UniProtKB/TrEMBL annotation:
Protein name (record): tRNA-uridine aminocarboxypropyltransferase
Keywords: S-adenosyl-L-methionine, Transferase, tRNA processing
Catalytic reactions on record: a uridine in tRNA + S-adenosyl-L-methionine = a 3-[(3S)-3-amino-3-carboxypropyl]uridine in tRNA + S-methyl-5'-thioadenosine + H(+)
Entry-linked InterPro entries: DTW, DTWD2/TAPT
SMART domains: DTW (SM01144)
Signal peptide as annotated in the record: none
Family statement: Belongs to the TDD superfamily. DTWD2 family.
Ranges for domain DTW: 14-177
This protein's record includes keyword Heme: no
């Protein structure tokens, strides 16, 4: 049996989340949309669109339709994507991307006269996100690995948004999924199980990863 969750904040568009009943996430979604102060603009890699465990529909189901927009693609330009270009040019727009050059959001908010109104999020694997970020000049904005509570002080919203994700992880573990630590964590804590590569290029890449340097 498949359970379908229907959600609409305006009545003219529905979001469907079809999953087997025993792993249905509907009970973990908010009854009403969370009225956040920040707009989210999600840039989704095409490979993520059809994944069974994709999480963007869960986020969209928790927020008002006008607060969460999703754009699918790899390459974007001002000519082909005027709406995205306009969003990127706004002074209150930030892009979420970790790296050595990322700004500290708490300090940024204190120093900037403009409060962030839009957050651009890249949805994909690390390599996919890196490819999208560095090959699209539109995304040359202040970057930040941030705590959402700095932008929206309602901590209960954060917990509500985490509930479906926590349920999704729990369902996976209940059905045979294994907890795996990131390569970065294993390297930093000296518990990487494989021998270090002899290839100088690969060795250098792993050294950069250990030092949290953008690679």
């Amino acid at each position: 049996m498949v359970v379908t969750y229907e959600y609409s904040s305006t009545g003219d568009k529905m979001i469907f989340l079809s999953r087997p009943q025993k792993v249905c996430l509907c009970p973990f979604l908010p009854v009403h949309p969370l009225h956040i102060s920040t707009h989210l603009y999600i840039i989704q890699h095409p490979a993520e669109e059809n994944k069974v465990l994709r999480t963007v529909p869960l986020l969209a189901a928790c927020l008002p339709q006008d607060k969460c927009k999703v754009k699918i693609g790899r390459r974007f330009s001002e000519e082909r994507d005027p709406e995205l270009s306009t969003v990127c040019r706004k002074s209150g727009t930030l892009i979420l991307y970790p790296g050595a050059e990322a700004a500290n959001l708490e300090e940024f908010i204190l120093d900037s006269p403009i409060y962030p109104s839009t957050i651009i999020i890249i949805d994909g694997t690390w390599s996919q996100a890196k490819d999208i970020f560095y090959k699209n000049s539109l995304f040359r904005l202040p970057t930040q690995d941030y705590d959402y509570t700095l932008l929206d002080k309602r901590i209960n919203y954060v917990m509500t948004l985490l509930r479906p994700l926590q349920a999704l992880c729990s369902f996976q573990l209940q059905h045979g999924a294994q907890i795996r630590l990131s390569k970065e964590h294993l390297l930093k804590n000296g518990i990487y199980p494989k021998p270090m590569p002899k290839n100088k290029r690969k060795l250098r890449k792993m050294e950069l990863l250990m030092n949290s340097v953008k690679i």
